[in-house]
Amino acid sequence: MPFVIHGLPVSQGIAIGNAHLVSHALLEVDHLLIAPRHVESEVMRLEDAVAKVRYELRAVREMPTTAQSEVAAFVDLHTMLLDDPMLVENAARLVRERRCNAEWAVVQQMEAIVDDFDNIDDPYLRERKADVIQVVERIVKALLGHPGHVAARKGKNGLDTIVVAHDLSPADTIHFKNSQIAGFVTDVGGATSHTAIVARSLGIPAVVGLRHIRHITRDGDIVIIDGTRGVVIIDPDERVLEEYRLKRSALELERNKLKRLKANRAATLDGFEVSLQANIELPRDAAGAKDVNADGVGLFRTEFLFMNRDTLPNEEEQYEAYRSVAKALAGKPVTIRTLDIGADKTLSSGGPRPETNPALGLRAIRYCLAEPQMFLTQLRALLRASAHGKIQILIPMIAHAHEVDAALSAIEQAKTQLRAEKIRFDEDIRVGGMVEIPAAALALGMFVRRLDFLSIGTNDLIQYTLAIDRADEAVAHLYDPLHPAVLRLIAQTIQTGAKAGIPVSVCGEMGGDRRFTRLLLGMGLGVFSMHPAQILQIKQEILRSDAGELALKVARLLRLDEPEKIREAVDKL
Ligand code: PEP
Ligand code: MG
After folding, report:
1. Which entry of 20, 194, 388, 483 is annotated as an active-site residue?
2. Are residues 427 and 347 in the same domain?
């Protein structure tokens, strides 16, 4: 029976594919589609890993210990689980039938077994669930020591894979960059959570906040995601499938048409020139920015370099990453934000201690100032890379003048060290700050005096102005970019920057949302930064707009404070 569920649209487009039900743990392994010719060697890889674990267990059993009988009991149990066809044989079948990589297959099989355990009455047997998980962890570890083949491109007629999960962290989602995931749907999540942001940067349709999608979908079901309307259809009939295939082709056609705007300068009808820059998460995303001829990188979220790993990237590795983006952009500005870890972005290697309210805790610049050595390493890498392009440094989450002073003096310290070591860097490197805490927008003077540019992070500015967790679907309906308080803070920041003669950009999601382009233009915004996939759409809006006319209309709009009236006025712009 087909059924339709509505959630929060977070990444546009249409995806059609087979559901792959996953849990959070499952996502710690890559999800790859194995080329048909590599399937048998992938099965062998799985069997080798199982043999290795069997050998390891034997070694554990032979170790001298005072708890000989307990060790023997658990080793026997784990060996028995390893021999159980339910686990390894069925995982091998998944590799053969679904062409999953071995890690993914074995974890999926574990999920199936563990789900059954939950229904067992006998407490002893139920507790064996942990043993199954431990055995699978051992197999995955053995597999990771012997990486398999690179993911194959999916066949033209093969159906795509759609991930169905209760929740996905940004660290999980960034894994999809290496895999063949066509889209994802989750029970929880908000539209400007970092998970949603990564989905947009991958260009894969996604709908979140569906509440029970993981329970009502079966593995292998056909799923349609309409990431523009926030609709998910499970088990559609042939007529609906055909309708969505047509819609998907029409969208593709539209995207291709937009490519004609690549070489055009982004200027309004009355000649107001706008800079359209790209938001990136990883160095390889610079290629996407170049593809659409972005005017620079307006936001490089460096925290993604720090995720999914046991140790922090050292200076050399960071230098290479920043240098490669600077070089790829060939002289265009590359705005690199210093580490913004905390809230929904976490590190496997430690990071800020878990807090009761992480969005208000030791996040972003607060965390960097608390970890001066780590901060200095990043600043040295950034400065060294600045010898290879036009890098500028962006400090996230500023609220206090002393935070900016401390960050600037850390930059000075890094410069002094590099000078002493005779290492080249850009002496005039520009340093900016993110306006994403209302306090910064309201007391902008103290920041304007200290910084070379400002960038408005509307995602957090809205979150902190309205006290709405941006990642929580339960309050998503209250997350309102058009709230009069939000609009005033944005407009005020743009005006103050203009008066002081320092550039202001918007790099939050509002910058890439065409519903708000004319509003921001009318406020006088000259730099928009967004995911590369949104740049041509926004350029199209700018080419059709008259900045002078919009300025008059927006000035009137900003005097309104009735939500309905504001909405109406924005629609009419
Ligand atoms: C923002 O808050 O708008 C922003 C761009 O930063 P992030 O989304 O990474 O918090
Ligand atoms: Mg932010």
Report:
1. 194
2. yes
